[in-house]
Design goal:
about 475 residues, six-stranded antiparallel beta sheet, three-stranded antiparallel beta sheet, 14 strands, about 20% strand
């Protein structure tokens, strides 16, 4: 496939050579790896939070079998509470998610009609489902990411067709299977921030920086999806490469360096200004398959920057989001440890360890456990007695209550966030806040998501309608 590009000042059209294509492929591939390496802190935070949020296997195999290893699932509880709070106050009702106001009298008269058109589009594309995912990523990875584009969706339907036959007096009714278009229009899709990298110097909150900077989205696509984008020779080569791969199931962080996964092929999509041969190609789109084939090199087909990225808190060195739940990860583990230690003491108290006469064991060091008999202690009156070792119980309820409150104070997530409190009607710039305690802090998070995410999404969709 031959690609061309235009020089902005002279409008001269140039063609890419094979060497040019290979340099672009190498440059985009290296950029993805370098930008991904820089946000290792975000990946580590997600890897710690993921088992807690999704209640995966978390058994501590370093503990002795008799020791308590109960999980409080505190992070899971706070995660669900915050998710419900964000849903209730941002997008539970699409009709009230945003307002449309005209800049002058003429546009004000059509504002109501424009809003109805946008609401209809959001309902048809089922935007709530995508916002559910984006909000989930905000609290698990640290970023709320959306991709706005134009999309056509089809479904297979069975329909009757009439066929004239010579052998029948009347028409015979047959059934056929057809692809029926069920949606064709602007579309909003949630992006997993793990699969998005961008230039660390640029802030997604500053529009002109975010539109210009390089952004790369990684995904995996099937051979069938890529077939029409490759030459027959390249497709056959890619097909042979895929057949040689047979990976086990992995999570998102484990496939960042993989080019093939579960019979699918890596696709890197670049958006933003691109420096090539001393020229700055404005608002460009580049698409690479398997870090080997260039299948897209053109001006951004969506015109507007399709990638929206929002974070409540960012790492100042990389501009990547930090999930608020990561701030309490160590505290929740400490709370679990305290509760398990109380359980251990109770077990030891019910079945205490015991002293035994001298030379009872061949080994000098004995690990204590419930009912364990350990070496005789000097100074005991009866050297032949087996004496229980008292384990005093202690009340740690005040300490546990303190940690529990501290966790809520640091994260800003309280059990009563699910209801109650004062209500203020929402407009495009005012968010309904429904919480007792730290309402100002929570309102700031809501406003950040609304202003930098929801309103930007509405603007992008409106530009495409």
């Amino acid at each position: 496939m031959q690609f061309e590009y235009s020089i902005m000042d002279s409008h001269e059209i140039k063609k890419l050579s094979n060497d040019d294509e290979q340099r672009i492929i190498k440059d985009i591939s290296n950029s993805f790896k370098n930008w991904d390496d820089l946000r290792s802190h975000q990946i580590k935070a997600y890897q710690k939070l993921k088992p807690e949020i999704y209640i995966e296997e978390r058994q501590d195999y370093h503990k002795k079998a008799w020791k308590s290893d109960k999980k409080m699932n505190k992070i899971f509880s706070l995660f669900e509470t915050r998710q419900a709070y964000l849903w209730e106050n941002i997008y539970a009702n699409v009709d009230k998610m945003f307002d449309v106001e005209g800049k002058d009298l003429k546009s004000s008269l059509s504002a109501k009609e424009q809003k109805s058109s946008l609401i209809d589009a959001f309902y048809k594309m089922k935007v709530n489902q995508q916002l559910d995912k984006a909000i989930e990523y905000l609290d698990s990875v640290g970023e709320f990411c959306l991709f706005t584009s134009w999309k056509s969706k089809y479904k297979q339907v069975r329909r009757p067709i009439k066929a004239n036959t010579k052998n029948l007096i009347k028409d015979e009714v047959l059934n056929g299977i057809f692809n029926e278009k069920i949606y064709d229009g602007a579309y909003v899709e949630a992006i997993n921030p793990i699969n998005l990298v961008f230039e660390p110097e640029s802030s997604p909150e500053i529009d002109f920086e975010w539109d210009k900077c390089g952004k790369i989205i990684k995904s995996f696509q099937s051979l069938e999806e890529l077939q029409n984008s490759l030459s027959e020779k390249d497709f056959d080569e890619l097909n042979q490469m895929v057949k040689k791969k047979n990976e086990d199931i992995k999570d998102e962080t484990e496939t960042l360096n993989d080019v093939f996964y579960q019979g699918k092929v890596e696709v890197l999509q670049y958006f933003g200004d691109y420096n090539f041969n001393g020229e700055v190609l404005k608002n460009y789109f580049i698409k690479i398959v398997a870090r080997k084939f260039l299948i897209g090199f053109e001006t951004n087909p969506f015109i507007v920057n399709p990638i929206i990225n929002v974070a409540s808190k960012r790492n100042p060195d990389t501009n990547r989001g930090i999930p608020c739940l990561y701030s309490i990860y160590d505290l929740t583990k400490s709370l679990e440890d305290d509760l398990n230690e109380i359980k251990d003491v109770q077990v030891l108290n019910k079945n205490p360890a015991r002293f035994a006469p001298d030379n009872f064991f061949k080994e000098d060091e004995i690990e204590i456990s419930p009912g364990k008999i350990i070496k005789y202690k000097q100074g005991i009156d009866d050297p032949n007695a087996i004496i229980s070792i008292p384990i005093p119980l202690h009340d740690a309820s005040n300490h546990i209550a303190y940690l529990d409150k501290l966790i809520s104070d640091i994260s800003g997530i309280y059990p009563n966030m699910q209801g109650g409190g004062d209500v203020t009607n929402s407009t495009a710039t005012e968010i309904k806040v429904k919480v007792q305690g730290q309402s100002t802090r929570l309102a700031k998070d809501l406003d950040t998501i609304k202003q930098n995410g929801i309103i930007k999404m509405v603007e992008n969709v409106a530009d495409m309608l």
